[in-house]
């Protein structure tokens, strides 16, 4: 098996800022191509996150240390067991390689990944939200106008201008359903509850609130907030893998599962299944990504109550074609590739 991994800098249509990071006009991801002796290949991607101590350089360096003879499209479980045996493997690297392995395996089987996993995919059924980052109220309003085609908005909060930004959103989209994402930005349970109660008193179309408090918040404080919250609370930074589901079931109403946090499609599949069994609502989320990773997430759509897979829509130079999101509806109908990830390079 040959492994080719390289960095890809994505240019953002607007500077991107959330409560846990500084604003930026670019975002870096790693792309990988695995090719076996027959010429069959699979694509993978990961956006390493500094929030979890991961870097592009670290993922690329890890890929140079692989014993590629231990990777096989015909043995996904064995390949992942090998990767798990390597000390210090970044979750981002697991995500990168797991997706490429599944892409190749499903291509070999002559199936799209959603059928390879036995899930299927219903066209015209899955809708993604469109995310609006933290900014000035004036720019928030402009971004919401620009996102008029998308039926659900996700507003990033955790900033002193939260109330002004929400008012700016509603000034141009008074009826649209909204999801609110604090990205750990409300630091105490009292402040979080105050903001939750303010949202409900102000607006009747809030679907839920993501990660209202830091992931390091005590279980007692999270349980306290869950018991009093007038809105459903979803874990994001608090939910990485299937191991976190018992904690999330105690402290939240739902989870946001991202492939780069779980370590790829296989692990996201297990995490979503466990969350559903635990009675949690499920959402599949994303980072700033190309159509490789967005499409990978879309293959799991049948396991999700909600989708937030818009990361490629926030960029201006996505080098791949895959799942589309016209008017917010996730679709593979126009994908040229019929098997695997159903992703192909542009041009």
Q: What this model shows, in words?
A:
The chain is α/β, with parallel strands linked by helices and 347 residues long. It folds into 2 domains: 2-110, Enolase-like, domain 1; 130-345, TIM Barrel (Alpha-Beta Barrel). 34% of the residues lie in helices and 19% in strands. The protein has 12 helices and 13 strands. An 8-stranded parallel beta sheet has the order 4-5-6-7-8-9-10-11. It has a 3-stranded antiparallel beta sheet with strand order 1-2-3. Helix 2 (76-85) packs antiparallel against helix 3 (91-109), helix 5 (137-146) runs parallel beside helix 6 (162-172) and helix 7 packs parallel to helix 8. The radius of gyration is 20 Å and the shape is globular. It starts with a strand and ends with a strand. The mean pLDDT is 96.
**Integer average pLDDT:** 96
Radius of gyration: 20 Å
Please report which band the strand proportion falls in: under 5%, 5-15%, 15-25%, 25-35%, 35-45% or over 45%.
15-25%
Briefly note the structural class of the backbone.
alpha/beta
**CATH 2nd-level architecture of the largest domain:** Alpha-Beta Barrel
Tell me, what is the CATH class of the largest domain?
A: Alpha Beta
The major pleated sheet works out as: 8 strands, parallel
Number of H/I helices: 12
Span from first to last CA? Answer: 26 Å
Order of strands in the sheet with the most strands?
Answer: 4-5-6-7-8-9-10-11
Poorly predicted sequence stretches spanning 5 or more consecutive residues: none
Name of the CATH homologous superfamily of the largest domain: Enolase-like C-terminal domain
Number of DSSP strands? 13
Number of domains: 2
Q: Can you write the helix and strand succession as a string?
A: EEEHHHHEHEHEHEHEHEHHEHEEE
CATH topology of the largest domain: TIM Barrel
The quaternary structure here is: single chain
